[in-house]
UniProtKB/TrEMBL annotation:
GO terms for molecular function: 4-hydroxyproline epimerase activity. NCBIfam families: PRK13971.1. It comes from Pseudoteredinibacter isoporae. This is Proline racemase. Coiled coil: none annotated. The lineage of its organism: Bacteria, Pseudomonadati, Pseudomonadota, Gammaproteobacteria, Cellvibrionales. Belongs to the proline racemase family. InterPro entries: Pro_racemase_fam (IPR008794). Pfam families: Pro_racemase.
Length: 332
């Protein structure tokens, strides 16, 4: 039976949507969130299609379900859903989910101001400040991030030769920096990001293997991160992250910022203790930091944190019934 009623809290993190689905959860099979993510992808994907795509969602739509923790030390678990699928980790999604869940009383921290959350990519720690019921900011201590591939030469129809890196921050990011055939984000339009990103992603995924050494279900370069000169005071870098088929993240992207810091750290351009304020395509900012050095499968890696804010703006009740020809969404 593919029908249901889903209560949702709608929020945005620094401009990008987060739809926290508070009822209608499918029971998921698995010992951890990675296995539960696989179960959702195999058996419950219609829920994502219904709640993320038009007419109930839109190109940029992104959301989550809260689940009971899988580990003894955790407060809760999150399953991320968005138009690009079920992400192993989502930074803006975590900030929005934590804000909406705390403000609505759905989530109670064992230690006020701190949470431990199981996510498909592993376990993350969160700090937050709540005043008069409102969550002021959320800081995520993200999973280990690392530069996976460096200086990959590709030939992109309509652009020409490009050199890109691939870095992991909870998802694998293809990072495009200013160079001869790419003048930087400030000289590039959103239409160009949307036109060329899927082409580059296909070229990379046909030729370069990205598989997480600790969890092979986390694989494939799913996102592109285009860099450029920041426009806002206090920013150290600017980016536009492309995901799904037509989305550009309105937030500075938590996993993208982690991946970018891991790249800069690997090149010696950021060191432990250093902050990195990242600006989005609409000028909103996350404050990133290199918290510590670590290793992933014996290779150098770093532990990033990302701090940002979210605002709750509404509640809704979405019904999905298979008598509706567009119950499971569409794309144009
Ligand atoms: O904030 O990690 C993030 C994210 C991933 C895709 C869109 N936002």
């Amino acid at each position: 039976m593919r029908k249901g009623t889903f209560f949702c809290i709608d929020a945005h993190t620094c401009g990008n949507p987060v739809r926290l689905v508070t009822s209608g959860h499918p029971d998921l099979v698995g010992n951890n969130m990675s296995e539960k993510r696989q179960d959702f992808l195999a058996n419950h994907y219609w829920i994502l299609e219904s709640l993320m795509f038009e007419p109930r969602g839109h190109d940029m739509m992104s959301g989550s379900f809260l689940y009971p923790p899988c580990s003894d030390n955790a407060d809760a678990a999150i399953l991320f859903i968005e138009t690009s699928g079920c992400l192993p980790m989502c930074g803006h999604g975590t900030i929005g989910t934590v804000t909406a869940a705390l403000e609505s009383g759905l989530l109670h921290a064992k230690t006020p101001g701190q949470l431990i959350l199981d996510v498909p990519a592993g376990q993350i720690r969160v700090e937050y400040e709540q005043r008069d019921g409102k969550v002021e900011w959320v800081k995520i201590y993200n999973i280990a991030s690392y530069l996976a591939h460096q200086d990959i030469q590709i030939n992109v129809p309509g652009i020409g030769e490009l050199k890109v890196d691939i870095s992991y921050g909870g998802n694998y990011y293809i990072i495009v920096e200013p160079q001869e055939n790419y003048p930087g984000l400030e000289n590039w339009s959103a239409a160009q990001v949307l036109q060329f990103s899927p082409i580059i992603r296909d070229i990379i995924n046909d030729t370069v293997e990205c598989v997480h050494p600790d969890d092979p279900s986390v694989c494939g370069a799913s996102h592109l991160l285009w860099t450029g000169k920041p426009q806002k005071p206090g920013s150290d870098g600017a980016n536009a992250v492309f995901y799904g088929d037509k989305a550009i993240d309105r937030s500075p992207c938590g996993t993208g910022t982690s991946a970018r810091m891991a790249q800069l750290y690997a090149r010696g351009e950021l060191s432990v203790g250093q902050e990195f304020t990242h600006e989005s395509i609409i000028g909103s900012q996350f404050v990133g930091k290199v918290e510590a050095a670590t290793e992933v499968a014996g290779q150098p890696a770093m532990m990033p944190s990302i701090k940002g804010w979210a605002k709750v703006f509404g509640k809704n009740c979405i019904t999905v019934d298979d008598d509706d020809p567009y119950a499971f969404g569409f794309q144009v």
